[in-house]
Design goal:
Elements lengths: L10 E6 L7 E7 L7 E6 L5 H13 L3 E6 L4 E2 L6 E2 L3 H17 L7 E6 L1 H12 L4 E5 L13 E6 L7 H12 L5 E6 L13 H21 L6 H12 L1
Helix pairs in contact: 2-3
Amino acid sequence: MDIAFPRIEPAIEQFLFAQGSRRSLPVARIRLGGVPRGAVIVLCDTGALERDAAGIMNGLVEHGYESVAVDLSPTADVDGAGVHLPSERELLDDVAVLLGGWVERGWSAEQVGLVGNGFGGRVALLAAAEFELGAAVSVVPSEVVPLSPRTPWLGLLAGQDQAASPDDVKRLRARLHDAPVYTELVTYPGVAGDFHFQSRETTAHAAAFDAWQRTVEWLDRRVVPRPTPLAREWRRRSESA
C-alpha cells in the first residue's frame, strides 16, 4: 500500500556566510523531530533553489533525513556592478559553515551526506575531496574535476552532457581508481544534462528515477544513522554488563 507523506515547506531565510564567501544567500531548511536517520546538505544547481529544493528535501524526509539546501553559484555583487565568482576555497568554506551547523545540532561528520545537482554537483565533488563525511552524490556536475575523494562518492553523468567530455571522464575514473574510499561513476547514455528535472521523454524519465534510487541507496548504505534512545540504552547496558 502506498503511503502519501504530507509535504513539508522548507523554511527559507537569508544566511550570511561570514566565515566563507562572505555572501548573504537564501538557505532552505527542514528539521525533523524525534530521531532523524541522518542529515543532508543539498547543493542546488544555478538558480534552482526555489525549483528543486523542496522536492529533493521532501524526498529525503521520506527516508528519515533532515536537510539544508543552498545555491552556491556565482551571485551579483552587493552593489550590482558585477558578479561574485566564488573561488573553490570559498565554496569549500561555505560547505564547512553548513557542516558546522549540523555539528551544532548534534550530528557528526559520518552522519552527514551531500547531494549536489549541476553546479552543486561540482561543489559536492570538491567537498568530497576535502572532507571525510558519510556520503556524497553529484548529479550531472557542471564540471567534471579529476579529484580523489575522501568521502564515498557517487557520480551520475548524462551521456549527452557536453560538460563531461570523454577525456574528462577518463581522467576522473583514473583518480577514482586510487581513491581511499569506495566510489562509483554511472553514465546514462542517450540523455541530456537536464534529465534529472525534465524527464518527460521515456529514457530521461527512467534515468531520473534510477538516479534518485541510487542517491537514496548511497546515502542509506553509508551515512551512519543516529542511534535512538532505546539503542543508546541497550549499548550502555551491554557495555556495563
